[in-house]
Every structure is written in C-alpha cells, then in structure tokens.
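Q: I'm writing a short explainer about 3-oxo-tetronate kinase for a general audience and would like to include a description of its predicted shape. Could you first generate the structure from this sequence?
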Amino acid sequence: MSSPALGCVADDYTGGTDVAAALRRAGLRTVLLFGAPPADMVVSDCDAIVVSLKTRTAPVDEAVAVSLAARRWLVEQGVSRIYLKYCSTFDSTDKGNIGPTVDAFLEAGGAALTVVCPASPEHGRTVYQGHLFVGDRLLSESPMRHHPLTPMTDSDLVRVLGRQTPQPVGLIPHEVISRGGDAVRDALDDLKHRGVRHVVTDAVGDRDLDAIARATAHLPVVTGAAGLARATGALLASDAVAEEGDTQLPEGPAIVIAGSCSAATLEQVARARRSMPSYRLRPESKDMIEGALRWLEAHLGDGPVMVYSSAPPEERLPDSAELLEQALAAAARHAVELGARRVVVAGGETSGAVVSALGVASVVMAAEEDRGVPWVLTSGVPRLALLLKSGNFGRPDLLVRAVDAT
Ligand SMILES: Nc1ncnc2c1ncn2[C@@H]1O[C@H](COP(=O)(O)OP(=O)(O)O)[C@@H](O)[C@H]1O
Ligand SMILES: O=C(O)[C@@H](O)C(=O)COP(=O)(O)O
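A: Of course. Here's the predicted structure. Afterward I'll give you a sentence or two in plain language.
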C-alpha cells in the first residue's frame, strides 16, 4: 500500500473543505479530518489527507503547537509533502498565525524557503505586485476590511507578513511568473541564496498557479489557498479520477446555521429569509440560546429552517463573537437531536464551532454544491450531510438551493 503523497494542514474548517474539494477535483483520493487526529489514528488508501484545524484566530503559540502536531502526524502517515492552507483573503491579525506557522513548518521540514500564495483566481482572489485583490478591489477596500475577527486593512502581503515574522520576505512578480515554471524556479533559487524564507508569488490566473506548482514541486513545504493546492494536486494525480463511494445525501429535515457576516453571506441569508422560517440570534437578549432551542422545537420538520446571527457592521454587538458561536453550535446540535439530517453552515469559525458540537472527526467527500463548497457526509449514526460554506463563497441562492427551499 502506498503512502499519501500530500498532507494538508488547514487553519479552519471551511478552508479544509475548500482545499479537500480542490484536491478531489484534481483527481486525488482525499480524506478530510476535523480537529487534531489522535496519535494512534491511521489513514490508508488515499492520495491526500487534509487535517482541518481551528487555528486562524487562536493565540500564536497555540496555533503553532497544534499545527506542528498535525504536521508531525501527517509525516507519520508517510506523506512526503506538506501543504499549509490559509484563507484566500489571508485572514489574520498583525499578531497573526500565518508567518509563525510557516516559520515553524520550514524549520520542522528542514526547508530553506517556501512560497506564500493565497491567490485563488476562480474565486476572484488574485495577487499582483504582492497586493491581494478581491475581484476588482484591493483586499483593504473589499468587505474584508469589516471582518468581525480578522479585519484586513492592508493589501500588501509582503508588508502584512513582515509584521508576522522576523524572517526575510521576498516577492516574485508577475513579470517572472508569466515566463513559466523554470523562470520561477530560478527566481526561487536566487532568493534562497539571498536568505529569503517567505516568497510571496504573484498569480492572476490558473496558468500562473500551474507554473508556481511546477517550480515548487521539489519543496517539502508549500503554502497557499486552494488554488495552488489544486495545481499541486494535478501534478501529483495519476490518470485515475478520484473514486466515488456512496455519496447520496441522507433524507431528513434541513437547517441553515449562519454566523458569517461577509457580504456574500449577508446576501445569501437575505434570500434564505424570504424562502424559509428563520430565527435571528440577538446577543443582547439574556435567554438567547434557550429562545433559539424552543423556536427550533416549534419549527423544525415542517420544511427547512434557518438560525442566524449574520449582520452588517452597524448592527453587530462588539465582543459577542464567541457567545454567538456557542449559540449557533447549540442550535445545530439541538436540531440534529430533533431529527435534522442536512446541516448547512455559513462561516469558517461558525463551522468549527458546529462541527465540534456535533462531535464529527472525519467525513467522506461528496459533490460540490458551489465551487469550493462540497457536501461532506459523516460516517456515524445518524449519518449527516454537512455543507460548510466559507463566508465569502457561493452564489446568492446557495443556502436556499442547499436545503431545497426553492
Ligand atoms: N451579529 C454579530 N455580531 C458580532 N459578531 C458576530 C455576529 N454574527 C456573527 N458574528 C461572529 O463573526 C464571526 C464570523 O466568522 P466566521 O464564522 O469565520 O465567518 P467568515 O467565514 O465570514 O469569516 C464569528 O465568530 C461569529 O460568531
Ligand atoms: O481560502 C478561502 O477563501 C477559504 O477556503 C477559507 O479559508 C474560508 O474561510 P472563511 O471565509 O472564514 O470561511
């Protein structure tokens, strides 16, 4: 039995589902795990393993330690290459975890340098002259500047990373990337000799990602979002397409749990409110959780329902994020106790809270409902179908479509 070729550590749960979907699309048989795997867990018969962690907003020391443990476990499974997955909008704070985790992975893997490549052109995330764009806006002028936990107010990735790591940060501009894999490899060698450890790579299209993937095929550690993972996976994939097991979604009531406050989610939630009964969590209310649970008892089962806290910046209560995550997780758990079998979650941190509350540690991949948003199936009893949606992803009718509320 051969070992998996690629081991991926993702810094949140929707990031994990996104990258697992990309690797599966590239043709790799991909196993997706939630939370740090137990040391004695063994995974076999796959080409790639994705370990999804909740480290994006954790304190730096904790994020590094948990990520290193996941990396060590992946190495013990025999993976030869590690991919560190973070958000395509580079979600982090100035004390953020991307720089320190990359440094720790370089050291653990005995590697001199790696690339930093959040570009995911299929989702409109491109990098030019080291600046990250969301569609036609700089990251700092996109709705990401109002993110409740990781507001992104600087689009210059070399500068952002420079605040997160004491190690030298360099850039390979698009002018070099567009010349192809060999030119990128030469540029990497040059930067390595100059002592650079983190190399931000411009990328405005999939061809750029393919060139970067070819140029980094010899590196033990590569970092980025799902775009470069897809390109890396395509180089590793054999001709065989990832096998499909039983990926039928279970029958049963459906619920939407929305905690993301992104522009995309706010539009999706507005559509869902017009199509199904919904309950808004209000953190200022003393019996917020109890109220939601009683509402679910009255409404679940008569068609899809939604519990949400998603709100625009002016309607948010400061410092209520954690409390709301607990409430959303409690609502999801109670809905499953009441018979829900399809759980659609909007938001990365929110998904982490919900998946933990449901006690789900590993899943089987099923079809993508929208790009980067795959259904995943639990193996326990009862079998659940989960759709963990990154805040920024999905078409406006995604939530409605996912629960068949049209
Ligand atoms: N009304 C609100 N006021 C303040 N914070 C909120 C509100 N609704 C949700 N949040 C918090 O905002 C955060 C959204 O993060 P996340 O779930 O990762 O979404 P995204 O995928 O858009 O980043 C969560 O911690 C959530 O609890
Ligand atoms: O890379 C991406 O954009 C996503 O995979 C991702 O990381 C999702 O994070 P959230 O927007 O916090 O859900």
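A: For your explainer, you could say: Residues 6-236 form a domain with the Rossmann fold fold (CATH 3.40.50.10840).
Q: Perfect, that's easy to follow.
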